[in-house]
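Module 6 notes. Inverse folding takes a fixed backbone as the condition and produces residue identities as the prediction. Think of it as a translation problem where the source language is geometry and the target language is the twenty amino acids. Below is one complete input and output pair. Work through it position by position during the lab.
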């Protein structure tokens, strides 16, 4: 059911106490309600769920539906791909620096990291002309956007709202040539979907993080 629920990206595992821990994202309001209804219709009672699914607002349903088959699934061994902000933050304000911490999956992989804004643009954080595509070893940890380590300086500003960071790791490059550092998200998702369906990258893993961006 989780694998088929539109506009969600939810994984998790069974806890020792027999409850199902669910983590991830579902569209706020109707998306969350639909997911709860699907589970209830299948006989999964609320008391058996540790609900850690976060509702979101933004034009991200297409991206989540595209990436869901490549993300961690409930009850399966995680790929190892992970992304976070320093200190476990999920909210940034005007003037904050954007630094993305990543752990690569359990296989050698190329990496694509992109920042989606709620007004329909995507900015690619890696690869870029200054930080070209290359293979990373299994479970390598890297930080993107750390000026102290010689990285670029990405300062948070408008537009404000819920933004999304997407990491995709693949055994081979997904695209034969580079993409613009910034482009419309619809164009990028169309190209990414074609590459994933064609199997261009070989084994893949995907990870998504929602970030709230505010003026203060």
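Target side of the pair, the amino acids:
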């Amino acid at each position: 059911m989780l694998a088929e629920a539109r506009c969600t990206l939810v994984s998790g595992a069974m806890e020792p106490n027999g409850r199902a821990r669910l983590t991830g994202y579902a569209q706020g309001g109707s998306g969350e309600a639909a997911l709860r209804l699907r589970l209830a219709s299948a006989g999964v009672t609320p008391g058996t769920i540790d609900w850690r699914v976060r509702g979101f607002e933004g034009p991200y349903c297409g991206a989540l539906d595209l990436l869901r088959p490549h993300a961690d699934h409930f009850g399966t061994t995680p790929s190892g791909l992970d992304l976070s902000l320093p200190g476990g933050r999920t909210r940034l304000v005007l003037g904050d620096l954007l630094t993305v911490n990543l752990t690569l999956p359990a296989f050698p992989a190329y990496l694509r990291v992109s920042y989606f804004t709620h007004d329909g643009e995507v900015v690619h954080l890696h690869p870029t002309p200054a930080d070209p595509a290359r293979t990373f070893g299994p479970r390598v940890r890297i930080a993107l956007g750390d000026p102290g380590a010689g990285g670029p300086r990405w300062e948070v500003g408008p537009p404000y709202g819920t933004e999304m960071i997407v990491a995709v790791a693949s055994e081979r490059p997904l695209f034969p040539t580079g993409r613009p550092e910034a482009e419309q998200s619809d164009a990028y998702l169309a190209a990414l979907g074609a590459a994933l369906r064609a199997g261009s990258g070989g084994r893949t893993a995907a990870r998504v993080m929602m970030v709230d961006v505010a003026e203060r």
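Reference fact for the lab report: The longest strand covers residues 204-214.
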